[in-house]
From TrEMBL:
GO molecular function, one term: enzyme inhibitor activity
Record's protein name: Pectinesterase inhibitor domain
Domain Pectinesterase inhibitor stretches: 61-227
TM region positions: 40-58
Length: 237
């Protein structure tokens, strides 16, 4: 049994707790007070993690735009692989995407023209082999001339795209873009003429290599023209 003195102390302590609710409440509030680390973590999230999430989301949207645009071309895989690195610069702008396509095609055509120039300088031009058949040297020279024309036409297309006035009238925009379409179509014709010249050449070891290189340029030119056409359609509709 508890002694009378201990029972008295227990009753007094219990009474103080019951009749001093402020003290209990004060302890509860102190316990429930939020940690200072919580707002710091929240601001850290806003400052570092959230921008990364938004950036990844934006890059995904830009990449999806290029993929969707390239699906309207004849060679979508080539289109996407050659233009995917431009996703952060073109964003969702069809005109910027078309301009990028023309730019990389021009670079590719210049490289091929330079390659052919080295070949033609090593071979004197002869019109036929005596049996009214074109010689390989003549075909190389003709192909080189066609590619030079294609380069100039692409340069004209790039110049027009740089000068494109988006704030002008729709008719002005269509006129400017029609120039680009005309030049790219002419470049594609010149490239096709280049490969057509090799049809009667059978014993030239470099024929397949040249034709394969020109075919790559033709595909890129075709894709660039398709993206220009899409740009016009987007503006009209």
């Amino acid at each position: 049994m508890l002694s009378q003195q201990y029972k008295y102390k227990l009753e007094v302590t219990t009474t103080k707790i019951i009749h001093n609710p402020k003290r209990v409440t004060s302890v509860s509030q102190e316990t429930m007070k939020p940690s200072l680390h919580q707002p710091l973590f929240f601001f850290f999230f806003l400052a570092t993690v959230l921008p990364l999430i938004l950036t990844v989301h934006s890059q995904s949207d830009d990449s999806d735009f290029i993929r969707t645009s390239c699906n309207t071309t004849l060679y979508p895989d080539l289109c996407f692989s050659s233009l995917s690195s431009f996703s952060s610069s073109v964003h969702n702008d069809p005109a910027l995407l078309a301009r990028a396509a023309i730019s990389i095609t021009l670079t590719k055509t210049l490289d091929l023209a330079s390659y052919l120039a080295n070949i033609t300088t090593l071979q004197p031009e002869s019109q036929d082999d005596g049996a009214h058949h074109p010689t390989a040297a003549a075909v190389f020279h003709d192909c080189f001339d066609n590619l030079k024309d294609a380069v100039e036409e692409m340069k004209g297309s790039m110049k027009q795209m740089r000068e494109l006035v988006s704030t002008g009238s729709l008719e002005s925009f269509r006129f400017q873009m029609s120039n680009v379409q005309t030049w790219l179509s002419a470049a594609l014709t010149d490239e096709e003429t280049c490969t057509d010249g090799f049809k009667d050449i059978h014993d030239e070891p470099r024929k397949d290599d040249i034709c394969a290189r020109v075919d790559d340029v033709k595909k890129m030119t075709s894709n660039a023209l398709a993206l220009v056409n899409r740009c016009v359609d987007k503006a009209i509709h």
